[in-house]
Amino acid sequence: MAKKLLVTPKGVAVYPHLSKPDTKFNDKGEFKIKWQGSGAEAEAFVKQIDAAMKASALAAQEAEKKTAKPRKIKLASAPYTRNDDGSVTVSFKMVASGVSKKTGEAWTRRPVIFDVNGKPYTVVPRVGGGSTVKVSAELNQYAKPSTEQKGIVLAGANLRLEAVQIIELVEFGGNAEYFGFQNEGGDEEATPATVEGEEPAPAATESADEF
């Protein structure tokens, strides 16, 4: 069965981890990004999340009715927050590695990163906060027993990261404008600085972490 993918409108990347997984809280590693947006399109996007969460709660409630001791259903925290300026911030994650329960084989995966023209990057850029992006994710509904409250089932939905399109890249570490520099060379493309007698350093094939 094909995945049901949701795609955000254009928004701003917040704390992206896209070049390599973050292992701070998960040894398996997580690729993740928070997307921030506002307006009618952002509201329409979060309404789809709300609908999935309610559907998950109703399904869990019906399932509990068939048990000898029905547990109470409680909505889990939504994968988005509302900000004081009226915008919303939505969280997306992808587990980077694991072991198949069916075959016992180890697996790894990473999100596909596309450029503004819809072409995948061969080397993932160091996507920094402030980049303009669109995010594609699988909307996943779930119901699971609460680890903190006995007799409670948490029902909700989360967003499994699949791909990101970079509309306008702001590289991690800041661009020239971030550091207060302006274009002093007209429209000419700058060439890398070198020390006399040395060759320019080769381009990196592995980008550093963004966090």
Describe the structure.
The protein has one helix and eleven strands; from the N terminus they run E-E-E-H-E-E-E-E-E-E-E-E. Strand 5 and strand 6 (88-95) form a beta hairpin. The model is unreliable at 189-211 (pLDDT under 50). It has one helix at 40-65; strands spanning 5-7, 11-22, 30-37, 72-75, 80-82, 88-95, 97-99, 106-108, 112-114, 132-145, 152-168. The protein has a single domain, classed as Nucleic acid-binding proteins (OB fold (Dihydrolipoamide Acetyltransferase, E2P)).
Notable traits:
single chain; 211 residues; mainly beta; OB fold (Dihydrolipoamide Acetyltransferase, E2P); two-stranded antiparallel ribbon; 37% strand; disordered C terminus
Concise overview:
By secondary structure, the protein is mostly beta strands.
Helix-strand layout with pairing:
Blueprint: E1 5-7, E2 11-22, E3 30-37, H1 40-65, E4 72-75, E5 80-82, E6 88-95, E7 97-99, E8 106-108, E9 112-114, E10 132-145, E11 152-168
Parallel strand pairs: 4-11, 9-11
Antiparallel strand pairs: 1-10, 2-3, 2-10, 3-6, 5-6, 7-8, 10-11
